[in-house]
Amino acid sequence: MEKIVVPKQNYNDKKMKHDIKKLLSRYSDILYHTVIGYSVEERGIDAIRVGTGEKEIIMHGSHHAREWLTSVLLMDMIEWYAQQIKEKETYQSVAINELFDKVSIWIVPMVNPDGVEFVQTAKSTPNRHQANDKIKKYQEAWKANVRGVDLNRQYPADWDTIDDRIQKPAFANYKGPAPLSEPEALSLYSFTCAHNFLYAVSYHASGEEIFWKYKTEGALLKEAAILANKLSILTGYSLVAPDENPSGGGFTDWFLTEIKRPAFTIEIAPYVGPRAVPLKYYDHIWRENCYVGLFLAKYAVDHPNA
Ligand SMILES: [Zn+2]
Fold first, then answer.
1. C-alpha to C-alpha distance for 8 and 15, rounded to whole angstroms
2. 242 phi and psi, to 5 degrees?
C-alpha cells in the first residue's frame, strides 16, 4: 500500500491537513480526529487519536515554527502505528492492536501552524501583526507564533520568573503579555486539562537531548527518572540535568508541576543552530524515535497503578 505521509519534504499545515484526511479514510476504525482550537490566523489546530483505549498519552510538535520536522515525525508515527494496528503486528511480544484497545495516543502534530507557514513560505505574515518590516530576515530562525510570542514560554509554571529581557514580540523567546495569551498555547492547555494524560511528550529540535526533570520531587521524580532513562536508551539521546533555577513556562514544566505526571521534551537531531533541521537527518531521527509512542503505551499497560 502506498504510504500517505512522505517525510523528506517541506511540510506545512496545508500538506498536513491533506494527509490527515487520507489517513482518516484509510484507517477510519483506528484513527479519530478533532480540532482543539484555532491559531491567530485561524488555522485549525489538529489532534489525532490513535487507538481507542482508556489510558491516554499526549505527544505534540512544532510549538516552535522552525522545528516543523517534528510535525513530520509525528505524522509518520500516526501512519505507522495505524498500519501496525491494522496488520496486527507485535511490539515486544504484545499484539499492537490489543495494546491500542487499552491505550490511546493523542497526537497534536503542529501546535504553531502559522509560524510553520511563515518559515516555509513567508506567506503567513508576522509583520501584519507586528508592524516590523525587517521581520523577513528572521524567517529561517523563526520560533514564535505570528504575533512574535514564544509559545513554549506561555504555560502557567513559574511564568513570572521567566527571564524577561525580551520585552516585545520577537522571532524567539518573548514570553508574551500574560500566560496563555496566545490561542495556540491556550488550545493545547485546555485540551490537556480536559483529559487525563498519563505521560506527555513535547517534540522540539535540535540537540539529541531529553528534558524531563524541571522541579520534580518525590514519587513523581522516581517515576519520571525511570522513564527518562528508558527513553534515553531507546533514542540514544542524553538526559539534561536542569540548572539550579530552571526557567519555567514550557509545556513540559507545566505538565510536571501542575498535572503531576511524567513529561518529556525530546530534542530531535544533532544540534543545527537557529534554523530548520535539514531533511538529510530524517532517517536517523525516525529510527531513534519511531518506538517512543509504542514504548509509552506498553509501559502504561504494564504499570496499571500509574
Ligand atoms: Zn523548540
1. 13
2. -70, 160
Pairing status of strand 44-50 against strand 209-211 = unpaired
Q: Give the residue, 163 or 23, on which the prediction is more confident.
A: 23
CA angle 19, 22, 24 (to 5 degrees): 105
Q: What is the pLDDT of residues 188-245, one digit of tens each?
A: 999 999 999 999 999 999 999 999 999 999 999 999 999 999 999 999 999 998 777 7
Q: Could you tell me the distance, in angstroms and rounded to a whole number, from the CA of residue 63 to the centre of ligand 1?
A: 6
CB atoms within 10 A of CB 64: 25
**131 has pLDDT over 50:** no
270 C-alpha vs ligand 1 centroid, how far in Å? 14
Mean pLDDT of 94-117: 98
Query: CB within 8 A of 141, min separation 6: which ones?
Result: 66, 171, 172, 274, 275
Active-site residues, by number, are 267
Cell of 120: 516555509
| Cβ neighbour number for residue 48 with a 10 Å cutoff | 22
Question: Does residue 58 surpass a pLDDT of 50?
Answer: yes
- Domains of the chain, residue spans: 13-302
pLDDT level of residue 104 (50, 70, 90 thresholds)? very high
Distance 267 CA to ligand 1 centre (A): 8
Largest CA distance in the chain: 57
| Spacing, Cα 153 to ligand 1 middle (Å) | 10
Higher-pLDDT residue of 242, 278: 278
CATH of 13-302, one of 3.60.21.10, 3.50.50.60, 3.40.50.1820, 3.40.630.10: 3.40.630.10
Q: What separation in Å is there between the alpha carbon of 93 and the centre of ligand 1?
A: 35
